[in-house]
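The protein record reproduced below.
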Amino acid sequence: MDTYKARKYIAIGLVAILLVKDYKSLYRSFYMSDKCQLEAEARDLSLQGVVIKKYIDSANHQYRTIEIERKWFNDVFYFHNLEDSLLWKTVRVNDSINKQPNSLTYYLIRNGRKLAIITSYNCRRSP
């Protein structure tokens, strides 16, 4: 096999791997509305930790932002402008936050009390 064919097969293989690896976001961007894309991303999300900062990120499109302290590193969580703001309005610094994948329910623990917040994206799927 000559080197041209070998390089061609390697390139095709790499492109195929990239497409398969990121198939969810490709599907979402072509076939889902913005609100449905956000809902799907929120369902995939897993959060667990203590909120250490809450702010409007002026360097990043004015996104509402919380930073969550985890065991090994801090997580930064952005609220998109299309997202329901009930969670943003309710969360405070020092709250524990927990969200499991395949769910739209966030649990906040504040002063020993557990508060469940179900987010809404107004996603209307076509029949």
User: Anything to note?
Assistant: The chain has four helices and six strands. The radius of gyration is 19 Å. Residues 1-31 form one domain. The CA atoms of residues 36 and 68 lie 25 Å apart.
